[in-house]
Amino acid sequence: MNLPDLKNLSIEPYRNREEVIRQVAAQIEKDFDQFGLEVHFSGEIHNAYEELFTQLNKHLSHLLDRDYHRLVLLLYQIDVSEKQIIRTELNFPDVPKSELLTELIILRELKKVLIRNYFKENPDKL
Known about the structure:
Elements: H1 18-33, H2 48-66, H3 68-78, H4 82-91, H5 97-121
Helix pairs in contact: 1-5, 2-3, 2-5, 4-5
């Protein structure tokens, strides 16, 4: 297994990879739980992205409006940089910020899972 191209990563190729989807959902649940934000994945693989997107977007909309400090801490925990956010906002100026952040978070959590899996399968690369 080669390490995926993380600079040009897209969610699309992983939408039907059940194990990866479950791992991403678990990572999202764990990270959001640390901030008292409940995310629950039903286990339905065919609409996992939409299910997670809806829940995250709701939390992020709330945080943007009412608890910006906790939002900043969450983004730091997940490792979504201000630079990424600004770049994404410039590329997609008509998309609501909560949706942009949701997409960035899902992509970052996918990267974490893919990197972890790569090194689990290739311990000699450490």
